[in-house]
Design goal:
alpha/beta; 2 domains; 6-stranded parallel sheet; 7-stranded parallel sheet; globular
């Protein structure tokens, strides 16, 4: 009987991300991490991608990780006549296409060699993937790409009577959540995002566990409540496994962009903690009027800044120039203390730079975890989706401040005076900086040899290895 480590087959893990950089990046990082622990990895890539950034990052990833297998999964063109969908969001449309196409994946997975030990699926494909995994008799885990706090709301959605809520949502064992923090689509059961959420959350109970890019010290109360099983009365969630903050995957030196080298050289010339970084993620495009008010605010703040701009939701369609967005003369006035760029940047390179002293962020969860990992204070400006809930997590943890009066993105025009005042307040708050450094240290400890995230990941891998040994025996 085989009973030694020499006879253990490495676990074979398939990972299935959904559309959008916010969903892809955690999967790339998790794939690289699992591969570094002697697991055989197959990354399933739905194609074509919605954004150019997704395509570029996949190319870079596989060229730098040739030992990780790529399973191409072509998605059939969307037929709106046969499958009507009440959204024009290209990422939501792709989520729907992926879910409908998943039965086509069954023969591709069943023919993999060695056989799969487990599948890790994006939560946006949970309903269809749970059926597929059940059909193939493969255990599956959900990867939830937001905070534990938002998971507590998301999982509670089927049992909430939102029409009867006046001010707060009551979730057992957790502080009340302001009604104003709920994504507006949740109040419309016919909205694509809401109906899609409701259909997927019901399948969570079939998963063996749920991976979250967070860490115990950052969301201790919520993680404990979720795993105590008292948050939901109508459904038992699988065990929540915090494995954050996920580290960026390594790339070959040749993959570094010339643009990246340029902005890092500029940051090298700035004083420590003097630069405010401004970015609202890969899916957010503000109005030209709001962009110019932000520019006015940065000018008024007196702070050096590094600003990532977007002119449209999908990067392939973003053809507006920086000068047109910012107005003639702005960058000439600001050239001594500001940089504005368009397109994808390696955000962790920026946040890890000693010149960065603060981050004006939409509070997409990947951005929150990157800020936490590097101890960078955040000025939260939530724009849609889970971001108000995430902003509350940031504020509660002491990592940042939340400009609640600005509302959701596009709800009102936030004037330059307001932006400038808040940026100055964040950049001059020494207490916030100290707490940021403490959180950065807690994030690093989570990945020490005895850290909470390291321990959780190793327990998962060891369980798979022991199951493989039992099969061989």
């Amino acid at each position: 009987m085989a009973n030694s480590d020499n006879h253990r087959m490495p676990p074979h893990i398939a990972l299935f991300p959904s559309a959008g950089m916010g969903h892809l990046m955690p999967f790339l990082r998790l794939a690289a991490l699992l591969s570094s622990h002697n697991c055989t990895i197959t990354l399933i890539t739905p194609t074509p991608t919605v954004s150019a950034a997704e395509s570029t990052h996949l190319t870079t990833f596989f060229s730098s990780h040739p030992h990780i297998r790529r399973l191409h999964f072509p998605i059939p063109p969307f037929d709106s006549s046969s499958t009507p969908i009440n959204t024009d969001d290209p990422f939501f449309i792709r989520w729907s296409q992926i879910s409908q196409s998943l039965p086509l994946l069954s023969p591709l997975l069943s023919n993999l060699s060695p056989p799969l030990s487990v599948v890790l699926s994006d939560f946006a494909a949970s309903m269809s993937f749970s059926q597929l995994a059940d059909h193939l008799s493969i255990p599956y885990y959900v990867v939830f790409s937001s905070s534990a706090r938002f998971l507590s709301l998301f999982a509670s959605l089927p049992s909430l009577n939102l029409d009867g809520i006046e001010d707060f949502v009551e979730i057992p064992d957790l502080p009340p959540l302001p009604k104003s923090s709920l994504p507006p689509p949740f109040f419309n059961p016919n909205h694509f995002f809401t109906s899609f959420a409701l259909s997927n959350v019901q399948s969570f109970r079939k998963a063996k566990g749920m991976f979250l890019n967070t860490f115990e010290e950052f969301e201790m109360e919520t993680i404990t409540a979720l795993n105590n099983g008292r948050v939901l009365s109508t459904m038992k969630l699988p065990h929540v496994i915090p494995i954050g903050p996920l580290e960026p995957f390594n790339v070959e030196n040749g993959e570094k962009s010339e643009k990246g080298s340029d902005y890092l050289v500029w940051l090298d010339g700035q004083s420590d903690g003097s630069v405010v970084y401004v970015s609202f993620g890969s899916r957010t495009a503000m109005s030209k009027e709001q962009i110019r008010e932000i520019g006015n605010g940065l000018e008024r703040s007196g702070c050096a800044f590094f600003w990532v701009l977007k002119g449209s939701k999908v990067d392939k369609e973003d053809t507006v120039g920086i000068e047109e967005l910012l107005g003639e003369g702005f960058m000439d006035r600001m050239k001594s203390r500001g940089v504005a760029v368009k397109g994808w940047v390696e955000q962790e390179e920026i946040l890890s730079h000693p010149a960065i002293g603060g981050f004006v962020s939409h509070c997409g969860w990947n951005s929150v975890m990157e800020a936490a990992r590097h101890g960078v204070p955040v000025l939260a400006w939530p724009l849609h989706g889970d971001q108000k809930v995430n902003a509350e997590v940031v504020e509660t943890a002491g990592l940042g401040m939340w400009a609640r009066e600005w509302g959701w993105g596009g709800e009102r025009l936030v004037r330059g005076e307001e932006v400038g005042d808040k940026v100055r307040e964040m950049m001059s708050d020494e207490k916030l900086r100290r707490r940021g450094r403490e959180i950065g240290e807690e994030a690093r400890k989570a990945w020490n040899q005895s850290g909470s995230s390291q321990k959780a990941l190793m327990e998962f891998i060891d369980e798979l290895k022991h199951k493989n040994l039992a099969v061989i025996s």
